[in-house]
């Protein structure tokens, strides 16, 4: 019998899954063909959920550090000892001495219960902010009041042009491609804007490869041309927007010729893009996370919002600036699950948590890591590892012995999604949510996160904190839903939430003025310039020693650092893709072994020379580690301008060929590099 379940990954697509277990215990996963967005297709990462479930490398029992290694212990011992650490910490320094370091490694509803445990103790220190998308979310909050997206079907049916701006659709949002193809079959144009060449680019009418981190300039130069040629939607500007005059007068700064030289985008392409936004209608802009991981990443998103709004693409079918789908959160009562409003929380930003740990007063005495692998994933991960090592008791809850788990004092095995009942509700793109049903029994002694925290609460004499059942908790979180909808969710495996297909069609924006705000009162209140503005002297540039941009990009075949079950991902020597100018300047040929180096790290890697893309950019997949370092040892903890966002793509390096006579060159020649592509 097939079980309907769902992928919990932090992802745009949020797939509905059909699972079947055969007599040998083999689990076959397929996409659910009934799902209107994911339509029966499941990506490599989704399929790997069953491989991860059955992997021999899974952690199956509680482990305790002894010296340099781990020994297996019973759950009773693990819970009793960890409870004692919590108890002592509460006595010595209070609840802020307990650190919950978490992220969204699984995006299901009941994972919110992890926080419930800590809040039930009065509070804790916890991670806030984002390594992912917060600058863009904040920018869209300033402009629109919230980040709302158009439904994929709307783009497919109505867009006359689709501009994919900084989203690597063919890798990170694969179910978008069929919608784009539908639009193209109607004659819609496709533009891809990304410094690294993307597979989607092969289908595009135009690819634009800007210098990384300069898209804001590009958008404002395009807007200036639209202003000068009067390719504007005056009715929208007058009736639905606030502050056009202010931004219009500032556009003089963005001379197209100057912007062409700063962005490395040919001036003809800047005019071409202006004509597209100014004269085609409607243009759908699909924003990704890529272009906001920079010092001025928030302003960059504001600049693109302003361009699309002034040229009349906001609030109409087939238009919009679709970045995220934040309307989903309105349907779930997370507070009922977490109880956060009653808790005393000390916040450490994810980007800078290492510094916070090292200088904490009161100090951190015990840390719990859930749903994240920070030893690899936070910028300047070497600093993170140093800070983490300084904590007296380190507890990591995971399914695998990750780099973070390797440093722990206790590793506790949690269930894989195929062993859980829950609701997957964190798609970054569409408005369907799915029911997660157990397909198999937990392997080994694995327990769901909530169960681990319930056991800890009991050991601390506080069973009340986590009292409840899966069914009751789901009902609590869905308290705003009619009963039929909950039943439909369980029966069909997914439901569509009632989110409008066209964002802001009623032109009632969620901003303080109710209008689209070219001049944002919220931005002003946060101390930012009132309108979208890129400061040329704040663009980050390389140095003579480290001239090339190092983009540490999400892997194509797997999710971030979740690569344990991919043998090809565990290579000591990663692939780096380098632009043509780098190959030329450094005399590097495809397949050469090269040093990648900056102030913080140095590795050897195998070069793949890229014919297309920004010629001075380098791509290294994030989540890799080897040679004693991680990809995030190259990045630093600088932040973007808005919200709490890491600017980890503002990172520079040198590339140099490893000379033939160096021994490593010979050792490496045996390795046949897999071409990862973009
Ligand atoms: N296969 C796979 N899919 C995933 C993930 C994964 O690890 N693997 N991770 C998931 C998660 S957590 C997230 S947040 C999403 C992220 O998905 P995306 O929105 O695609 O974000 P990134 O992977 O950061 O995007 C990188 C793209 O942005 C481009 N880019 C980088 N800098 C710039 C710039 O300055 N300007 C422009 N215009 N483009 C730029 C890069 O060339 C690259 O094509 O993907 C999700 N999906
Ligand atoms: N340089 C650079 N750094 C980046 C990025 C980048 O593009 N470049 N991308 C950033 C982005 S967008 C993101 S979202 C972050 C994410 O970074 P992380 O949150 O660290 O994401 P993953 O590497 O996917 O690790 C998630 C971990 O959670 C575990 N896990 C999965 N499900 C569960 C569960 O139900 N319970 C528990 N307890 N554990 C679970 C997995 O086994 C895995 O070890 O990385 C960021 N870091
Ligand atoms: Mo992310």
Automatic annotation (TrEMBL):
Residues 1-57 form the 4Fe-4S Mo/W bis-MGD-type domain. One of its GO terms (molecular function) is oxidoreductase activity. Its cofactor is Mo-bis(molybdopterin guanine dinucleotide). Keywords: Iron, Iron-sulfur, Metal-binding. The keyword Nucleus does not apply. Pfam families: Molybdop_Fe4S4, Molybdopterin, Molydop_binding. InterPro entries: Asp_de-COase-like_dom_sf, MoPterin_dinucl-bd_dom, Mopterin_OxRdtase, Mopterin_OxRdtase_4Fe-4S_dom, Prok_Mopterin_Oxidored. It comes from the Bacteria. The keyword Coiled coil does not apply. PANTHER family: OXIDOREDUCTASE YYAE-RELATED (PTHR43742:SF6), TRIMETHYLAMINE-N-OXIDE REDUCTASE (PTHR43742). Belongs to the prokaryotic molybdopterin-containing oxidoreductase family. This is Anaerobic selenocysteine-containing dehydrogenase. It comes from Alicyclobacillus sacchari. The lineage of its organism: Bacteria, Bacillati, Bacillota, Bacilli, Bacillales.
């Amino acid at each position: 019998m097939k079980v309907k379940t769902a992928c919990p990954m932090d992802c745009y697509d949020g797939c509905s899954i059909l699972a079947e277990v055969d007599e040998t215990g083999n689990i076959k996963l397929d996409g659910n063909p009934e799902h209107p967005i994911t339509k029966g297709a499941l990506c490599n990462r989704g399929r790997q959920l069953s491989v991860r479930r059955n992997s021999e490398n899974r952690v199956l029992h509680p482990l305790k550090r002894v010296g340099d290694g781990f020994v297996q212990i019973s759950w009773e011992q693990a819970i009793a000892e960890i409870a004692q650490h919590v108890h002592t910490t509460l006595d010595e320094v209070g609840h802020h001495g307990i650190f919950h370091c978490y992220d969204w490694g699984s995006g299901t509803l009941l994972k919110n219960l992890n926080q419930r445990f800590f809040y039930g103790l009065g509070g804790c220190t916890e991670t806030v902010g984002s390594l992912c998308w917060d600058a863009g979310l904040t920018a869209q909050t300033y402009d629109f009041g919230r980040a709302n997206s158009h439904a994929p079907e709307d783009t497919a049916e109505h867009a006359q042009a689709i501009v994919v701006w900084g989203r690597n659709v063919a890798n990170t949002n694969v179910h978008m491609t069929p919608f784009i193809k539908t639009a193209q079959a109607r004659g819609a144009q496709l533009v891809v804007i990304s410094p690294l060449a993307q597979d989607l680019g092969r289908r595009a009418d135009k690819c634009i490869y800007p210098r990384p981190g300069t898209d804001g300039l590009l958008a404002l130069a395009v807007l200036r041309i639209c202003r000068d040629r009067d390719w504007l939607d005056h009715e929208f500007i007058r009736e639905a927007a606030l502050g056009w005059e202010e931004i219009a007068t500032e556009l003089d700064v963005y001379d197209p010729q100057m912007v062409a030289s700063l962005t490395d985008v040919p001036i003809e392409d800047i005019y071409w893009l202006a004509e597209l936004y100014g004269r085609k209608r409607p243009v759908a802009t699909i924003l990704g996370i890529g272009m906001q991981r920079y010092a001025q990443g928030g302003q960059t998103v504001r600049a693109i919002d302003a361009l699309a709004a002034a040229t009349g693409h906001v609030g109409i079918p087939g238009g919009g600036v679709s970045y995220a789908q934040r309307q989903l959160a309105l349907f779930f009562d997370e507070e009922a699950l977490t109880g956060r409003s009653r808790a005393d929380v000390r916040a450490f930003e994810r980007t800078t948590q290492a510094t916070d740990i090292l200088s904490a007063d009161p100090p951190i005495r015990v840390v719990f890591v859930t749903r994240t692998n920070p030893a690899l994933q936070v910028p300047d991960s070497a600093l993170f590892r140093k800070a983490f090592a300084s904590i007296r008791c380190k507890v990591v809850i995971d399914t695998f012995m990750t780099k973070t788990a390797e440093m722990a004092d206790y590793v506790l095995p949690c269930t894989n999604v195929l062993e859980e009942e829950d609701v997957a509700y964190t798609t970054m793109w569409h408005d369907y949510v799915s029911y997660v049903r157990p397909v198999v029994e937990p392997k080994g002694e694995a327990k769901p996160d909530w169960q681990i925290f319930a056991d800890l609460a009991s050991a601390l004499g506080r069973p009340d904190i986590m009292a409840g059942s899966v069914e009751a908790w789901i009902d609590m979180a869905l308290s705003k839903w009619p009963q039929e909808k909950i039943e439909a969710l369980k029966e069909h495996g997914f439901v569509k939430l009632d989110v409008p297909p066209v964002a802001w069609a009623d032109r009632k924006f969620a901003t303080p003025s109710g209008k689209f705000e070219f001049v944002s009162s919220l931005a002003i209140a946060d101390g930012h310039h009132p309108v979208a503005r890129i400061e040329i002297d704040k663009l980050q540039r390389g140095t003579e020693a480290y001239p090339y941009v190092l983009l540490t990009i999400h892997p194509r075949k797997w999710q971030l650092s979740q690569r344990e079950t991919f043998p090809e991902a565990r290579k000591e020597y990663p692939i780096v893709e380098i632009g043509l100018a780098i190959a030329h300047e450094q005399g590097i040929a495809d397949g050469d072994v090269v040093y990648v180096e900056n102030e913080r790290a140095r590795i050897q890697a195998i070069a793949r020379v890229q014919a297309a893309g920004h010629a001075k950019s380098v791509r290294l997949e994030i989540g890799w580690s080897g040679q004693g370092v991680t990809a995030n040892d190259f990045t630093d903890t600088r932040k973007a301008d808005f919200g709490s966002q890491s600017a980890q793509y503002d990172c520079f390096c040198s590339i140099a060929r490893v000379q033939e006579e160096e021994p490593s060159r010979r050792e490496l020649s045996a390795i046949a590099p897999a071409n990862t592509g973009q």
